[in-house]
Design a protein that fits this description.
mainly alpha, 2 helices, 51% helix
């Protein structure tokens, strides 16, 4: 979260590519899929989870900031949408 109301820093934004357990050996490579999952998905999430305990109480709620951001984006879209 930042000091500006409604402004959030994106910490992580990826789709789960699936691990090597989820691929068919006939048309995919389970070892490569597992490596892609571990390095591109699981490892970054583990790093974020480790930092969660380091946080301190903030002046603003990240939940409210998220709600404010959504409201601002919806208002902007409504203002530019043709009637």
């Amino acid at each position: 979260m930042t000091e500006a109301e409604g402004e959030l820093n994106r910490t992580f934004s990826r789709c789960n590519p699936g691990s090597g357990k989820n691929v068919d050996e006939w048309n995919s490579n389970p070892r490569i899929a597992q490596k892609r999952w571990e390095e591109g998905f699981q490892k970054p999430l583990d790093e974020i989870a480790k930092r969660l305990d380091e946080g301190v109480a903030g002046k603003q709620s990240p939940i409210m900031a998220g709600i404010q951001k959504i409201n601002l984006e919806v208002s902007l879209l409504r203002s530019i949408a043709p009637s």
